[in-house]
Write a structure and sequence with these properties.
Largest sheet: 6 strands, mixed
Function: Has an important function as a repair enzyme for proteins that have been inactivated by oxidation. Catalyzes the reversible oxidation-reduction of methionine sulfoxide in proteins to methionine.
CATH class: Alpha Beta
EC number: 1.8.4.11
Number of strands: 8
Number of domains: 1
CATH architecture: 2-Layer Sandwich
Strand order of the largest sheet: 7-6-1-3-2-8
Keywords: Oxidoreductase
Active site: 16
Catalytic activity: [thioredoxin]-disulfide + L-methionine + H2O = L-methionine (S)-S-oxide + [thioredoxin]-dithiol; L-methionyl-[protein] + [thioredoxin]-disulfide + H2O = L-methionyl-(S)-S-oxide-[protein] + [thioredoxin]-dithiol
CATH superfamily: Peptide methionine sulphoxide reductase MsrA
Order of helices and strands: EHEHEHEEEHEEHHH
Length: 178
């Protein structure tokens, strides 16, 4: 039985939140993933408001996890390998600041871990530049219910979108099998 002391959350943005939700939910130690919006000015925005731009929000996921089974650093490693950090204000076929990539830290340890992971990625030479923002977390607003678990509720549409967007092809190009 897990106590609430054993639960932590992390917020990441990597373009389409349906895809990020799917990618994170597969990890052992992840308890749940919620699609939503963060980083903007509008209180409790709707999908229509965020996707139109102008709210300052980005599509994001809030990952609830058990730190005794998966660490924040492991989540960071998984995050980097599921985005294209080399582009600004877009991910794959989704364009606009509402699809920017980001790591939203809640404390100094998370900030340091996020910055160290970014610096290690740059030092590795795999990418020449990184446009992923690393900023303090602000309010996270859950997306509408129809977005939650979208990849499970609508697998045909989801897979068509993911393939059509070129997400997996670009990730393979960037990261290979890793």
């Amino acid at each position: 039985m897990m106590t609430t002391a054993a639960i932590a959350t992390a917020i990441f943005a990597g373009g389409c939140f349906w895809c990020m939700e799917s990618d994170f939910e597969k990890l052992p130690g992840v308890i749940g993933v919620e699609s939503g919006y963060t980083g903007g000015r509008t209180v409790a925005p709707s999908y229509e408001q965020v996707s139109a731009g102008g709210t300052g929000h980005t599509e994001a996921v809030r990952v609830t996890y058990d730190p005794s089974r998966i660490s924040y650093r492991q989540l960071l490693d998984h995050f980097w390998r599921n985005i294209d950090p080399t582009v600004k204000d877009r991910q794959f076929c989704d364009i606009g600041s509402q699809y920017r990539s980001g790591i939203y830290w809640r404390n100094e340890a998370e900030r340091q871990a996020a910055e160290q992971s970014r610096d290690a990625l740059l030092k590795s030479g795999r990418v020449a530049r990184i446009h992923t923002e690393i900023v303090q977390a602000t309010a996270f607003y859950p997306a509408e219910e129809y977005h939650q678990g979208y990849y499970k509720k609508n697998p045909i549409r989801y897979n068509f979108y993911r393939r059509g967007c070129g997400r997996d092809a670009r990730l393979q190009e960037l990261w290979g099998g890793k």
